[in-house]
Amino acid sequence: MERGQVAALMQQILKKQGRDATVAEDTVLRDVGFRSLDFSELALRIEQETGRELNFDAGRLRQIRTVGDVLDFFQEASG
Amino acid sequence: MRHLAVVDLAPGWGRFALRPDARTPPRGAVAWSYDSQGNRLCWLADRDGGAAGRAACDLEWRERVPGPALLRLAPAGLDFWRFWVLAELAAKLAAMPILEWLRRYRCGQVPPLPVGARALVVPRWDGRWTLGFAHVVARPSAGERKPRQRSPWGFAAGRITVWDTTDAAGASGRGVAQEVI
């Protein structure tokens, strides 16, 4: 999935929770209130959209800190 | 620092503190977690969690609306938030990112906790949160501990046990959690 599409889905999830959907890529996830539940919802939405299971390495998940990291991760995992 | 609540849990489980927007790790907490509103849950166990085994806690803001794909993960008949808190506890005890945990176990089942783990779930704290606390008891070698002997945390030896508070206790926002299972 394209980075812009991942960002759009992430914004939908943030907006649905009443949070600011326009955040900079270097924003730390905790500061924007994007937690593991939101992260998991985004993962499931991407799988739904692409019709494929995500392909990722668990070690890569541990390095995610910012909004940009999330976009990088899902762009790779859904590629 | 303002506390939303400092509450005694069931005997042997210690206390928890719920604080708004606190960033520094608390002294004496064996585990802590944040919700989407920036509130922090600290678990202040009676005993040293490091010595007794791994410990984890989780809180979820029940007013958040989970999407349909998330809702489908929970087994039929199980409250989604209770399912999710147990999943978070299981993943944390396994030192596994939640997405990795979901990849392995997403089959609509009650989240399996590690062997020797025990969990306490408060389904509706103050009507707004679901809270969970879990730990893995350090297991003594065979012969050191007899069946029904108390664990280092004060529990009898046995398989996984999930405790709940009653809704009434949770909704009151005060008091001691009660074992109902």
Describe this structure in words.
- The complex is a heterodimer of chains A (79) and B (181).
- With 79 residues, chain A is mainly alpha-helical.
- Chain A has one domain: ACP-like (Non-ribosomal Peptide Synthetase Peptidyl Carrier Protein, Chain A, Orthogonal Bundle).
- Helices cover 61% and strands 0% of the residues of chain A.
- Chain A contains five helices and no strands.
- Chain A has helices at 3-16, 29-32, 36-50, 58-61, 67-77.
- In chain A, helix 1 crosses helix 3 (36-50) and helix 1 (3-16) crosses helix 5 (67-77).
- The longest helix of chain A is centred in the middle third of the chain and has 15 residues, at 36-50.
- The model of chain A has no long low-confidence stretch (mean pLDDT 91).
- By secondary structure, chain B is α+β, with helices and mostly antiparallel strands.
- Chain B has one domain.
- Helices cover 20% and strands 27% of the residues of chain B.
- Chain B contains five helices and eight strands.
- A four-stranded antiparallel β-sheet of chain B has the order 1-2-4-3, with no helix packed on it.
- In chain B, a hairpin with a 6-residue loop joins strand 1 and strand 2 (15-20).
- In chain B, helix 3 (80-93) packs across helix 4 (98-105).
- Chain A binds chain B through residues 13, 16-17, 19, 30, 33, 35-41, 43-45, 47-48, 53-54, 56, 58, 61-62, and chain B through 34-38, 60, 64-67, 69-70, 84, 88, 96-100, 102-103.
Layout of strands and helices, then pairs:
The complex is a heterodimer of chains A (79) and B (181).
Chain A: H1 3-16, H2 29-32, H3 36-50, H4 58-61, H5 67-77
Chain B: E1 5-8, E2 15-20, E3 31-34, E4 39-44, H1 49-52, E5 55-61, H2 68-71, H3 80-93, H4 98-105, E6 117-125, E7 129-136, E8 161-164, H5 167-172
Parallel strand pairs in B: 6-8
Antiparallel strand pairs in B: 1-2, 2-4, 3-4, 5-7, 6-7
